[in-house]
TrEMBL record:
GO terms for molecular function: acyltransferase activity. Its EC number is 2.3.-.-. This is GNAT family N-acetyltransferase. It holds the Pfam family Acetyltransf_3. It is an enzyme of class 2 (transferase). PANTHER family: GNAT FAMILY, PUTATIVE (AFU_ORTHOLOGUE AFUA_3G00765)-RELATED-RELATED, N-ACETYLTRANSFERASE DOMAIN-CONTAINING PROTEIN. Residues 10-164 form the N-acetyltransferase domain. The keyword Nucleotide-binding does not apply. Keywords: Acyltransferase, Transferase. The keyword Acyltransferase applies. InterPro entries: Acyl_CoA_acyltransferase (IPR016181), GNAT_dom (IPR000182), N-acetyltransferase (IPR051531). PROSITE patterns: GNAT.
Length: 169
């Protein structure tokens, strides 16, 4: 299970059942569906089931990102061991009003610093579709380098990686 994390501006709490409204909004954004995929969360009950599935899995860690002192969720950072990847994959998604403010970089940097403490994470991966330019730019800013294109479930994904011992500022 994910641990609570914080930065100068942000609190990152593990996803829990109280995040139903946020998850429902996030996974139904047109760009989430376009760039990440349709999670078939069509109701609040679906959102609740989706969260239960996530928090019940040992291979997934989700952090909900909020500004310190505020309750409204801004976005999410994920760290997942996917069947089709050799190493864990980091991802992020933020609500439109929370983009271009440095929150995704700050939150993802905190998660990377946290997961790099485990010796088993020698390499960290990330994927994005080629058209998701803003995510690719953020991955590059975080120190990820393009490795290759992979085909997963009829989707062409750009695979990026970063060494677990990479330091950034």
């Amino acid at each position: 299970m994910a641990e609570k994390l914080s930065t100068d501006r942000l609190l990152l709490n593990p996803l829990d059942i109280n995040d139903i409204d946020f998850i429902y909004e996030l996974v139904n954004l047109p760009d989430w569906i376009r760039f990440i995929g349709n999670r078939n969360v069509n109701s609040k009950d679906d959102a609740k089931a989706y969260i239960k599935k996530i928090v019940g899995s040992a291979s997934t860690q989700y952090w909900v990102v909020r500004l310190k002192g505020e309750q409204k969720a801004l976005g999410i950072v994920t760290f997942i061991k996917r069947d089709y990847l050799e190493h864990h994959d980091i991802g992020f998604g933020f609500l439109p009003q929370s983009r271009n403010k440095g929150y995704a970089y700050e939150a993802t940097t905190a998660v990377l610093a946290h997961v790099r403490k485990e010796a088993s994470h020698t390499l960290i991966l990330a994927t994005a579709i080629k058209e998701n330019i803003s995510s690719i730019r953020l991955l590059e800013k975080l120190g990820f380098q393009f490795e290759k294109e992979i085909l997963i479930q009829d989707k062409h994904l750009q695979l990026f990686s970063t060494a677990a011992d990479l330091k950034f500022g």
